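Q: What would this chain look like folded?
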Amino acid sequence: MSEITKTALIAALYVVLTVAFIPLSYGPVQFRLSEMLNNMAVFNKRYIWGVTLGCLIANLWSSMGPIDMIFGTLQTLVMTWLSWYVGQHLSSVPAKLAGTVIICTLMSWAVALELNLVSEAPFWWTYLTVGIGEFVVVLIGAVIVWLVNKKVDLRR
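A: My prediction, written as structure tokens:
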């Protein structure tokens, strides 16, 4: 399977997991299941592009429209790149995935700021609610990705 095909599959999976659960995917209380895929960035840089492209497309359905397409997508790009970068300096897969969980949870400030500026949602409360949702989803995703990686080499 080519790099482009793998990237497109991850992007499509991100879009489907976001759009299929729209009530959970957007707003000040989020449980965006597609964020589980952020964990894949520690295995190969191609997943950074797949998740980022998927986020861009999924944000077409966001009530914040172009603002979310730009800033939400940039946040995803930074978050997955940081996960990949930190993962390059850790030796064990569980440590790499734990790094991703921490990075993604902390990076929720960007979503909180965007919601604060666009819809006047209270920043700290939104950071807490989005951060909790991100933590839970990415943690569950870390376990799933860890198990998948035991059967399928995600580095290839």
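The chain has one domain: 3-151.
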